[in-house]
Design a protein that fits this description.
By secondary structure, the protein is of the alpha/beta class. 41% of the residues lie in helices and 20% in strands. The protein is built from 18 helices and 17 strands. The N and C termini lie far apart (42 Å). This is ABC transporter substrate-binding protein. Belongs to the leucine-binding protein family. It comes from Leisingera caerulea (Phaeobacter caeruleus).
Length: 433
């Protein structure tokens, strides 16, 4: 794989003659994700970022394949977090637009379209590697290793706050939340932290009280929101503040953290740990990685889509960058050729540096990229990268523990396939660790 980013390639190509610019036939990409509802902040901001990428590539002449350039067109379909709508969208995007790449959040919405997309050999991306199985040869997770990357936040917290000994965690009972609960279980156990309370709740709930109260009553030093959706993260954080909690909070995401600082206090939010940086972070200016000049993208994004930056604003774009490089290397947009180009060297440079294809032990197929991942903390009201941690290094020590916790919650690939892969619909309830 080429290691130069799309932005760098654009600059280099500006000095070169364009070949067959302005072709009317477009290469179509599908965006099938939540553009509304509970998971909107993990869909719509990602589509916004893709529009920036789409415009930039087309202004540079389009996608170069065999000496000819083709414009890119991204077709979106709002499936919310509804499996039925997801299937309707997949059929429309494939049959009407003949998309060559399908961008998805994943989870319950992917489970509904898995057979259709794989049968039609549609190269599909997910942000959730737990969607992977041997039955998904055309599914890739090249951007986010959710929820595996969350082990890095727990490991960092254990190193830097060793006095914190106990934790209470919660998760929505769906195909995004349950794997995250398993990963956080494994990460806290690997860090020798005692889990005092676990709560699973219905993903449609908006009442934080029944979820947070038992966590607070446990007296835990750490409250972990796992991979709860943004509206619930806000509700639970505000609730914990109102109840006088003064301990540590850790969460996969903290979208709109500036609003929480305003609604609670800078002191309360100080030191909150999560996994997704703002791209104006000083540590990203110094790090050489695939997504070139992240601060420029961050500035452009906020200029065009103010107030909407989230954990996924850049993630689908990072997938497009990797796909773009593979297409031009293969000289084709056909999934088998593109996938082979991605896999040829055994590793790819992803958003935060070198990454390897991984996953066979847990998912039955090595179609997920894992490498370093940033740990983010809130410092003086602003998200800042506290450091980078290696996901492969953690897995080398604790993969058996992770596999055991995934199995305990029915999240190994064969368990999900046997169960039909729906997330449970439950009320808030405590579960045994």
């Amino acid at each position: 794989m080429k290691t130069t980013s799309f932005a760098h390639q654009l600059a280099a190509r500006a000095a070169l003659p364009r070949l067959s610019v302005g072709m009317t036939e477009s290469v179509n990409i599908g965006f099938l994700g939540p553009l509304s509802g509970q998971a909107e902040s993990w869909g719509l901001p990602g589509l916004n970022g893709c529009r920036i990428w789409e415009d930039g590539l087309n202004k540079a002449g389009g996608l170069l394949i065999g000496g000819r350039r083709y414009p890119i067109r991204i077709h979106s379909y709002d499936c919310g977090h509804d499996p039925e709508r997801s299937l309707e969208g997949a059929v429309e995007l494939v049959q009407k637009h003949n998309v060559k790449l399908m961008l998805m959040l994943g989870g319950d919405t992917f489970a509904a379209v898995r057979d259709f997309l794989m049968r039609n050999k549609v190269l599909t991306s997910t942000l959730l590697p737990t969607d992977l199985s041997p039955d998904t040869p055309y599914l890739i997770a090249p951007s986010e290793a959710h929820p595996i990357q969350n082990v890095t936040g727990v490991a960092w917290l254990a190193e830097n706050r060793p006095e914190l000994k106990t934790v209470a965690l919660c998760s929505q009972a769906d195909l995004l939340g349950l794997p995250a609960q398993a990963v956080y279980r494994a990460a806290f156990k690997a860090a020798d932290k005692q889990i005092l309370r676990e709560v699973q709740y219905d993903p449609e709930t908006s009442d934080p009280g029944p979820v947070v109260d038992p966590m607070l009553e446990s007296g835990a030093d750490i409250l972990c929101w796992c991979s709860s959706y943004a509206p619930m993260v806000h509700a639970m954080t505000e609730y914990a503040y109102a109840k006088g909690f003064t301990g540590q909070i850790i969460s996969c995401t903290m979208d709109g953290y500036d609003q929480l600082v305003e609604k609670t206090s800078a002191e309360f939010m100080e030191g909150v740990v999560f996994q997704f940086p703002d791209f104006d972070d000083p540590m990203l200016r110094e790090k050489a990685f695939f997504f070139n000049r992240p601060h420029v993208f961050f500035e452009e994004y906020n200029r065009r889509f103010p107030g909407s930056w989230s954990a996924v604003s850049w993630e689908y774009v990072a997938i497009l960058d990797i796909w773009h490089s593979a297409v031009e290397k293969a000289g084709s947009v056909e999934p088998p050729s593109v996938l082979a180009a991605m896999k040829q060297l055994g590793h790819v440079t992803h958003a935060f540096g070198h990454a390897d294809w991984w996953g066979e032990d847990i998912f039955g197929i090595s179609n997920a990229l894992v490498g370093d991942w940033p740990v983010v903390t809130i410092q003086d009201g602003k998200a800042r990268i506290a450091g980078f941690r290696s996901i492969p290094a953690w897995l080398a020590q604790h993969s058996n523990l992770l596999k055991a916790e995934m199995e305990a919650l029915g999240q190994l690939w064969h368990q999900r396939l046997e169960s039909g892969a729906p997330g449970s619909r439950v009320g808030s309830r405590a579960v045994q660790g």
